[in-house]
Specification:
Layout (H helix, E strand, L loop, with lengths): L11 H4 L33 E5 L9 E7 L7 E5 L13 E4 L5 E5 L4 E4 L10 E9 L4 E6 L2 E7 L12 E2 L16 E8 L5 H7 L11 E6 L8 E2 L9 E5 L3 E2 L9 E6 L3 H6 L1 H14 L5 E6 L10 H12 L7 E2 L18 H6 L2 H4 L5 E4 L8 E7 L2 E8 L5 H13 L4 E6 L31 H7 L7 E6 L8 E6 L5 E6 L17 E7 L4 E8 L4 E3 L4 E5 L11
Parallel strand pairs: 16-17, 17-18, 21-22, 22-23, 23-25
Antiparallel strand pairs: 1-10, 1-14, 2-7, 2-11, 3-4, 3-10, 4-5, 5-6, 7-8, 8-9, 11-12, 13-14, 15-28, 16-26, 19-20, 20-21, 24-25, 26-27, 27-28, 27-29
Helix pairs in contact: 4-5
């Protein structure tokens, strides 16, 4: 990225037959600031680094501007985006990309508009300014290359006010849609709410100096090389861009001193089906290290099997969990794949009840009781760590209202115990309580509507009502990263909810079923939890953003206190 005025702009006619080039304006390059990292460390997509905005925008990013440098031979990739893939994509997700030929591509409202602007190529190793404007009034998208209008497409797309945070240098795709990291550099990004005119776009090439009367959502000066760990919006109103990694195992952070640990185990269905050796090694590691890591309990969030009708998967799951017997107490719940017909029609659970029998697990010393005798579909467990008392509620997928009322009565029975809820579906990948297509209410075709719930109904009907509930763990929606939110219950207590579902992490093409789970290390003196998204096979954390510390001190929770 060089200082100096932009070079003479090339007309759209000339741009149609050749690569176009411009030079970054004065004042756009950012001085290196490692914020505590190794001096001048450069973060690159080649090494699986990217930036992620630490908050949502709250407005539709109708105008997108960026300075990019795409080398010859580049395969293109995502400049900025939050598209999550064909399976779990929210309809309001947006990607701005470079295609494998070096042309600009937009993906707006998921699959609402997917368009590549032809003829203008950016893969010449020079800095270029690109801008895309959604002209809602006239029903079209207008593309500018180095300040000149270079194409448009008619498409009456609605605003994209997304609940999914945006990434720079990669998108959020997972599972059946591979991530597409940018093979090139991004020096600056600016987003506006509403359509910005051509004059403003040309002026921005020489430097963005104001917020366009509040239309500017944010402007992030990333620098010629990425060296900063945090980059604030230049004008202070937008979220901060924070360095992240994708599909990368990193050294685990130094842990604080801890008194004990609790394990959160994701859906194990893909380990059972595709990587049974990982299930065996994972459970063996937990059993062998339970004492050394001061593990007190393992909470599993459902989908023990990968298909409700295949006995082999249940057998494999049961065999894996049996490795913990006598070493680490645990509990589990039913996921949608743990019903005989994958919960397409009803709650028939003959295989679940056969391979995870009530007669066996109800004899455990930590077993407290069940909603219905004869099935492990809804149970509670009790365990103590010195003077700290815990209650674990293990609830079926899309719990019935009667189950929620039962669970509430259990919370009332033990007001002095910290309550952990484990269930299969509660949070979505965007951090919201699950609703819609993938929530529990969209399953069980032949079950009455009042006999199934989504995440919002679970929150309103149970979680927010009882002051001793402090943690909810759920799975169901695959996500490479931990997803966490914190809410206040009716009594002022703080409830931390986490989506933990690594089942479709794919660091090797075509191979899923990684040995990743959540380790939570508790310090009772300071009331903190060190969280690590851990792989024992590698003794590393998956992605740097997935190791963090939570403060759980809570004067409004009678089982915790200050």
């Amino acid at each position: 990225m060089k200082n100096g005025k932009s070079i003479k702009r090339i007309t759209a006619v000339a741009a149609a037959t050749m690569c176009i080039a411009a030079v970054m304006p004065t004042g756009t390059a950012v001085a290196a600031d490692t914020d505590g990292a190794a001096p001048q460390k450069i973060f690159t997509a080649d090494n699986n680094y990217n930036y992620r905005l630490d908050g949502t925008l709250g407005r539709s990013p109708d105008t997108f501007e960026a300075w990019i440098n795409i080398p010859a031979g580049s395969g293109g990739g995502v400049i900025m985006g939050n598209y999550e893939g064909v399976n779990f994509a929210n309809s309001d997700c947006t990607n701005w990309e470079i295609d494998p030929l070096g042309r600009f591509k937009v993906r707006w409202n998921g699959k609402g508009l997917i368009h590549t602007f032809p003829d203008v190529y950016f893969n010449d190793g020079k800095w270029h300014h690109v801008a895309l404007v959604r002209d809602g009034e006239n029903g079209k998208f207008v593309f500018y290359a180095d300040g000149e209008k270079s194409g448009e497409v008619e498409s009456r797309q609605k605003e994209a006010v997304s609940s999914v945070t945006l990434d720079i240098g990669v998108d959020r795709s997972n599972w059946s849609t591979r991530k597409n990291p940018l093979d090139g550099k991004v020096g600056q990004i600016a987003l506006y709410s509403g359509a910005i005119g051509e004059d403003r776009i040309k002026a921005d090439m020489d430097g963005i100096n104001d917020t366009a009367d509040g239309a500017l959502i944010g402007c992030w000066d990333l620098g010629e090389n990425w060296t900063k760990q945090r980059i604030a919006d230049r004008f202070g109103g937008g979220p901060t861009a924070v360095i992240h990694t994708f599909e990368k195992f990193v050294t685990t952070m130094p842990l604080n001193e801890y008194d004990y640990s609790i394990v959160g185990m994701p859906d194990i269905q893909t380990m059972v089906h595709y990587s049974p050796e990982n299930l065996t090694s994972t459970m063996t590691w937990l059993a062998d290290n339970a004492a050394a890591r001061k593990m007190q309990f393992m909470v599993q969030v459902g989908d023990l099997s990968d298909s409700g009708a295949v006995d082999e998967y249940y057998i494999g799951a049961a065999r894996g969990l049996d490795l913990l017997n006598g070493k680490l107490p645990y509990t589990f719940v039913q996921g949608n794949h743990d019903y005989d017909n994958n919960c397409v029609t009803d709650r028939s659970s003959t295989r679940f009840d056969t391979y995870f029998p009530y007669s066996k697990f109800s004899k455990n010393t930590w077993f407290g009781g069940a909603y219905e005798q004869g099935t492990m579909a809804n149970t509670y467990s009790l365990f103590d760590v010195d003077e700290v008392k815990y209650l674990v509620l293990s609830l079926e997928f899309a719990p019935r209202q009667s189950v929620l009322r039962w669970a509430g009565r259990v919370c009332e029975m033990y007001p002095d115990r910290r309550v952990i809820i484990s269930t299969h579906g509660f949070l979505s990948t965007n951090g919201e309580f699950s609703t819609g297509k993938f929530s529990g209410r969209s399953y069980f075709r032949d079950v009455r509507e009042e006999d199934k719930t989504d995440g919002v109904q679970m929150w309103n009907g149970l979680v927010k009502k009882y002051p001793n509930i402090f943690l909810v763990l759920s799975g169901h929606e695959p996500c490479d990263d931990l997803v966490m939110r914190r809410d206040k219950g009716e009594h002022g207590n703080t409830v931390t909810s986490m989506l933990i579902d690594a089942q479709c992490v794919e660091t090797e093409i075509g191979k899923i079923g990684e040995d990743i789970f959540l380790m939570m290390y508790f310090n009772e003196t300071f009331k903190t939890i060190d969280c690590v998204w851990y792989s024992p096979k590698r003794n590393k954390c998956f992605n740097i953003q997935n190791q963090f510390t939570i403060d759980f001190a809570d004067e409004f929770n009678p089982a915790i206190g200050k």
